[in-house]
Amino acid sequence: MAYPYRHDREVRVMSEAFGDPAARTLEGWKARGGYQGIARALEIGRAATVDEVKASGLRGRGGAGFPTGVKWSFMPREQNPGRPHYLLCNADESEPGTFKDREIIRWTPHQLVEGCLIGAYAIGAAHCYIYLRGEFFEATGVLAQALEEAYAAGLAGPDVLGSGVQIDLTLHVGAGAYICGEETGLMNSLEGRRGEPRIKPPFPAAAGAFGMPTTINNVETLAAVPGILRHGGEWYRQWGTEKSPGTKLFCVSGHVSRPGNYELPLGFPMMDLIEDVCGGIPGGKALKAVIPGGSSVPIMSADECESCELCYEGVAAAGSMLGCASVIVMDETADIVKQVRRMADFYAHESCGQCTPCREGTAWASRILRRIEEGRGKPDDLDTLLQISDQMTGTTICVLSDSLAAPIVSAIEKFRDEFLALIRRGERVGAA
Amino acid sequence: MSEAPFRNPGWAGNTGEFDLAEADVRGVVASDGPPADGGHPSVAPSLPYMLAAKDPAAPLFEGPHLERFEKIKSRYPTARAALLPALNLAQELRGFLSPETMDEVAALLGLSNAYVRGVATFYTMYNKRPVGRFLVQVCTNISCNLRGAEDVLAAFLAHAGTELGETSEDGTFTVVEAECLAACGFPTCVQINSRYFEDVGPADVPGIVDRLQGELQSGAAV
Ligand SMILES: Cc1cc2nc3c(=O)[nH]c(=O)nc-3n(C[C@H](O)[C@H](O)[C@H](O)COP(=O)(O)O)c2cc1C
Ligand code: SF4
Ligand code: FES
Question: What is the pTM of this model?
Answer without folding.
Answer: 0.96
